Description:
Layout: E1 11-17, E2 19-20, E3 23-29, E4 37-38, E5 41-43, H1 50-62, E6 69-77, E7 87-94, E8 107-113, H2 115-123, H3 129-141
Parallel strand pairs: 1-7
Antiparallel strand pairs: 1-5, 2-3, 3-4, 3-8, 6-7
Amino acid sequence: MGTTDQPPLQQASAKAVIVRDGRLLCVRKIAQYGGQWEVPGGRLDEGESYRGALVRELREELGFQEVRIGRLLDAVPADPFPPFPPMHYLLVEVGDDGREPELSDEHDCYDWLTAAQLARLTQGRSFNPSLGRALARLLAETPTGL
Protein backbone atom coordinates (compact mmCIF):
# COMPACT_ATOMS: atom_id res chain seq x y z
CA MET A 1 0.00 0.00 0.00
CA GLY A 2 1.41 3.42 -1.00
CA THR A 3 1.46 6.58 1.02
CA THR A 4 0.49 10.07 -0.03
CA ASP A 5 4.05 11.33 0.40
CA GLN A 6 5.42 9.10 -2.37
CA PRO A 7 6.05 10.76 -5.73
CA PRO A 8 3.68 9.81 -8.55
CA LEU A 9 4.81 7.18 -11.00
CA GLN A 10 6.44 8.46 -14.16
CA GLN A 11 4.57 7.87 -17.39
CA ALA A 12 6.31 7.36 -20.72
CA SER A 13 5.38 8.86 -24.05
CA ALA A 14 6.91 7.62 -27.31
CA LYS A 15 7.56 10.55 -29.66
CA ALA A 16 8.35 10.25 -33.38
CA VAL A 17 11.41 12.05 -34.70
CA ILE A 18 10.68 12.30 -38.42
CA VAL A 19 13.18 14.47 -40.30
CA ARG A 20 12.94 15.63 -43.92
CA ASP A 21 15.61 17.85 -45.44
CA GLY A 22 16.85 18.88 -41.99
CA ARG A 23 13.35 19.76 -40.75
CA LEU A 24 11.36 18.00 -38.03
CA LEU A 25 7.70 17.06 -38.43
CA CYS A 26 5.72 18.86 -35.71
CA VAL A 27 1.99 19.01 -35.04
CA ARG A 28 -0.08 21.53 -33.09
CA LYS A 29 -2.69 20.42 -30.56
CA ILE A 30 -6.14 21.91 -30.97
CA ALA A 31 -6.96 24.76 -28.58
CA GLN A 32 -9.06 22.46 -26.38
CA TYR A 33 -5.85 20.49 -25.63
CA GLY A 34 -3.70 23.57 -25.03
CA GLY A 35 -2.67 24.59 -28.55
CA GLN A 36 0.98 23.67 -28.00
CA TRP A 37 3.28 22.27 -30.65
CA GLU A 38 4.71 18.78 -30.24
CA VAL A 39 5.97 15.86 -32.26
CA PRO A 40 3.56 13.03 -33.05
CA GLY A 41 3.25 10.21 -30.53
CA GLY A 42 1.74 9.54 -27.17
CA ARG A 43 1.61 7.65 -23.91
CA LEU A 44 2.33 3.98 -23.66
CA ASP A 45 -0.66 1.90 -22.64
CA GLU A 46 -0.15 -0.64 -19.86
CA GLY A 47 2.00 -3.52 -21.15
CA GLU A 48 2.71 -1.77 -24.47
CA SER A 49 6.22 -1.37 -25.89
CA TYR A 50 7.38 2.05 -27.03
CA ARG A 51 7.51 0.72 -30.60
CA GLY A 52 3.94 -0.58 -30.37
CA ALA A 53 2.75 2.70 -28.87
CA LEU A 54 4.43 4.69 -31.63
CA VAL A 55 2.91 2.58 -34.42
CA ARG A 56 -0.53 2.98 -32.82
CA GLU A 57 -0.16 6.72 -32.25
CA LEU A 58 1.13 7.44 -35.77
CA ARG A 59 -1.83 5.56 -37.20
CA GLU A 60 -4.26 7.48 -34.98
CA GLU A 61 -2.70 10.95 -35.26
CA LEU A 62 -1.28 11.01 -38.80
CA GLY A 63 -3.10 8.26 -40.67
CA PHE A 64 0.18 6.39 -41.29
CA GLN A 65 -0.66 2.72 -41.75
CA GLU A 66 2.94 1.57 -42.05
CA VAL A 67 5.98 3.11 -40.38
CA ARG A 68 9.69 2.30 -40.19
CA ILE A 69 10.63 2.54 -36.53
CA GLY A 70 14.34 3.21 -36.04
CA ARG A 71 16.48 3.55 -32.97
CA LEU A 72 15.76 5.10 -29.61
CA LEU A 73 17.55 8.46 -29.76
CA ASP A 74 17.03 9.81 -26.24
CA ALA A 75 14.87 9.68 -23.12
CA VAL A 76 14.00 13.10 -21.72
CA PRO A 77 12.10 13.99 -18.54
CA ALA A 78 9.39 16.50 -19.41
CA ASP A 79 9.20 19.83 -17.68
CA PRO A 80 6.19 19.92 -15.32
CA PHE A 81 3.02 20.72 -17.23
CA PRO A 82 -0.02 20.52 -14.93
CA PRO A 83 -2.50 18.93 -14.94
CA PHE A 84 -0.55 16.18 -16.70
CA PRO A 85 1.36 13.63 -14.59
CA PRO A 86 5.18 13.51 -14.56
CA MET A 87 6.33 12.23 -17.94
CA HIS A 88 9.38 10.91 -19.78
CA TYR A 89 9.60 11.34 -23.53
CA LEU A 90 11.17 8.52 -25.52
CA LEU A 91 12.48 10.11 -28.71
CA VAL A 92 12.41 7.52 -31.47
CA GLU A 93 13.73 7.76 -35.01
CA VAL A 94 11.01 7.13 -37.61
CA GLY A 95 11.80 6.86 -41.32
CA ASP A 96 10.35 9.49 -43.64
CA ASP A 97 8.72 7.96 -46.71
CA GLY A 98 7.61 11.26 -48.23
CA ARG A 99 3.98 11.09 -47.12
CA GLU A 100 2.15 14.07 -45.74
CA PRO A 101 0.08 13.53 -42.57
CA GLU A 102 -3.68 13.24 -42.52
CA LEU A 103 -4.31 14.79 -39.11
CA SER A 104 -6.83 13.47 -36.60
CA ASP A 105 -9.13 15.85 -34.76
CA GLU A 106 -6.51 16.09 -31.97
CA HIS A 107 -4.29 18.45 -34.03
CA ASP A 108 -5.19 21.42 -36.21
CA CYS A 109 -2.03 21.74 -38.31
CA TYR A 110 1.47 20.44 -38.93
CA ASP A 111 4.73 21.86 -40.21
CA TRP A 112 8.30 20.81 -40.93
CA LEU A 113 10.40 22.95 -38.56
CA THR A 114 14.10 23.81 -38.45
CA ALA A 115 16.10 23.69 -35.23
CA ALA A 116 15.94 27.52 -35.04
CA GLN A 117 12.15 27.54 -35.44
CA LEU A 118 11.83 24.85 -32.80
CA ALA A 119 14.05 26.83 -30.42
CA ARG A 120 11.86 29.94 -30.86
CA LEU A 121 8.69 27.95 -30.11
CA THR A 122 10.36 26.48 -27.04
CA GLN A 123 11.44 29.90 -25.74
CA GLY A 124 7.89 31.17 -26.24
CA ARG A 125 6.50 28.22 -24.24
CA SER A 126 4.61 26.96 -27.30
CA PHE A 127 6.53 23.67 -27.02
CA ASN A 128 7.35 21.70 -23.85
CA PRO A 129 10.76 23.22 -22.99
CA SER A 130 12.67 20.02 -22.19
CA LEU A 131 11.26 18.25 -25.26
CA GLY A 132 11.93 21.24 -27.51
CA ARG A 133 15.53 21.62 -26.31
CA ALA A 134 16.24 17.92 -26.82
CA LEU A 135 14.74 17.91 -30.32
CA ALA A 136 16.53 21.14 -31.35
CA ARG A 137 19.81 19.59 -30.15
CA LEU A 138 19.17 16.43 -32.16
CA LEU A 139 18.41 18.48 -35.28
CA ALA A 140 21.46 20.70 -34.82
CA GLU A 141 23.71 17.66 -34.41
CA THR A 142 22.37 16.03 -37.57
CA PRO A 143 21.16 18.85 -39.86
CA THR A 144 20.82 16.59 -42.93
CA GLY A 145 18.48 14.21 -41.13
CA LEU A 146 18.71 11.24 -38.84
